[in-house]
Here is the input.
Amino acid sequence: MSDSWLMFIPTDPEALPSKAAAEKALELLKSFAPESQNVCAKFGEKIEFHSGVENWSGVRCPGCGADIEAWWNGAIEKASRTDFQNLNVTTPCCAHITTLNELNYVWPAGFSRFGLEAVNPNIKDTTDEQDRALSEALGFELRKIWVHI
Here is the structure.
């Protein structure tokens, strides 16, 4: 049996909400996915990479659109050695200066210390209005990632 997670992470990898803001967003997410097996807020000591796992579909340069997955494998390995403290990169295709977090992940992915998760939410998706409500509750922009294992 496979599992899926609906995950929301800040677009800023270092962003952390207050406990009160996280609780408010958690209650909202529970109301959006009432049949979820588990809904939780996770605060991490370190930045982590979050991807769709089996939904992984590659990565492209935000500057020119080139497929940079082969290069990305080495870049993420290098960044992981310092717990993703430095996400700055220059793409090999067109020398675009960016961050690993701002690359064009074909299936949404990103880096964060904080995340909201709903395990097996049993919903097709959240609406734009629901996504905005979560972002407003937390006080920062969010990236939505559907994870499938």
